[in-house]
Amino acid sequence: MADDLCFFIKESLIVTPKKSPLVLRMIVLIFAMVCGIYIFSICLKQVSTNTEDGFSSVEVVERPCEPPNVEAWEKPYVHYPKPKTFKRAECACSPVRLFAILSTQRSGSGWFETLLNNHTNISSNGEIFSVKVRRSNISSIVETLDNIYNLDWFTSASKNECTAAVGLKWMLNQGLMHHHEEIVEYFRAKGVSAIFLFRRNLLRRMVSILANSYDQNAKLLNGTHKSHVHSADEAEILARYKPTINATLLIPNLKQVDDMATKALEYFKSTRHIVLYYEDIIKNRTKLNDVQDFLRVPRIDLTSHQVKIHKGPLSDQVENWVDIQKALQGTPYESFLHQDY
Ligand SMILES: *[C@@H]1O[C@H](CO)[C@@H](O)[C@H](O)[C@H]1NC(C)=O
Ligand SMILES: *[C@@H]1O[C@H](CO)[C@@H](O)[C@H](O)[C@H]1NC(C)=O
Ligand SMILES: *[C@@H]1O[C@H](CO)[C@@H](O)[C@H](O)[C@H]1NC(C)=O
Ligand SMILES: *[C@@H]1O[C@H](CO)[C@@H](O)[C@H](O)[C@H]1NC(C)=O
Ligand SMILES: *[C@@H]1O[C@H](CO)[C@@H](O)[C@H](O)[C@H]1NC(C)=O
Ligand SMILES: *[C@@H]1O[C@H](CO)[C@@H](O)[C@H](O)[C@H]1NC(C)=O
């Protein structure tokens, strides 16, 4: 329509050439320019509405990160978070992987997490879902996870801009089994990998639970309850307490924990995962290389200052050892009586 209008004006001007040709030419020129600007502005408007409708955001257009040098299957696991609370600075274009350590209480996950956090590029933010409101429903869980994986969650473990792997420690009984369907779907959609950490010797785990729960009231270390210690002296004090295990409930309890681990592996079998055992890491620290490879971070030697509390034969650590021996003999759990760690 704009073109028609210009053409019409041009025509009507050209049919009266008798007047001053210079002035007429100037008028034609000015009209042509005005029409040109008008058409150009319409085109601009159309271009800008197109970009608003589309999915490309201005930031992506401005600073595209180099596509990562990864195989096709790995693409969904690579992220470039844009935290709300800070700029990733020189690491803005280094990829970030998301993970969750899925474990059970007293299975060495605290120790394992301090080892991971000794890596310059790993931020594992602790047992975030030990706080009940954060796991009260799936929307709180998702909101919390989104914050963590967007690097907007701050703990002493946060490495901020140069984090290459970010995650948390999550106990199976902290909403994970209950909301497993939604969480598996979240892990799939967001590309989260799972690190299962279990303890093989569930009898030793039971001793650790009973002792830890006793200490919650007894507070053996000068009136403070500690679940993890950093010196041999402290470990020795805590290990002096010998729990009595209810022999009747022993087998059902062990079976229940065993079943929960099996069920968790079944639920999360479609999630990219690795399964680790506490005992294997204690015996062979090179297992930690497998974890670093799994998280695609450079391999380094990882250290922790935590000290193991219960050491030596189990017979020294349980008050009613004879009953326990009797209860387990001839059952699938008999080997727990003899295994180290
Ligand atoms: C890892 O542990 C070593 C030895 O304790 C320590 O010097 C280093 O600062 C730790 N690194 C991180 C990132 O915590
Ligand atoms: C989920 O839990 C949070 C925190 O307890 C609460 O504020 C929110 O209303 C709940 N949402 C739904 C959908 O129940
Ligand atoms: C690890 O962190 C360092 C700085 O702390 C950074 O220079 C390096 O690029 C990071 N590595 C990865 C793989 O992100
Ligand atoms: C407990 O107190 C004793 C002395 O009263 C002190 O030597 C020891 O370091 C304290 N231990 C802790 C864990 O605070
Ligand atoms: C073991 O637990 C059962 C069931 O709770 C209880 O009836 C029994 O008295 C307990 N035995 C001991 C020795 O505490
Ligand atoms: C230690 O673990 C690594 C990695 O999983 C494995 O290749 C190696 O054979 C193990 N070494 C021993 C002595 O078990």
Count of helical stretches: 13
Low-confidence spans: 49-61
Predict the CATH topology of the largest domain. Answer: Rossmann fold
**Average pLDDT level:** 84
CA-CA gap between termini:
85 Å
**What molecules are bound to this protein?**
2-acetamido-2-deoxy-beta-D-glucopyranose
Write the H/E string, N to C: HHHEHEHEHHEHHHEHHH
**How much is the radius of gyration in Å?**
32 Å
Number of strands: 5
| Class of secondary structure makeup | alpha/beta
Keywords: Membrane, Transmembrane, Transmembrane helix
InterPro entries: Nod_factor_sulfotransferase, P-loop_NTPase
Protein name: Sulfotransferase
Organism: Escallonia herrerae
Supply the key terms.
single chain; 341 residues; alpha/beta; 2 domains; five-stranded parallel sheet; 13 helices; 5 strands; 9% strand; binds 2-acetamido-2-deoxy-beta-D-glucopyranose
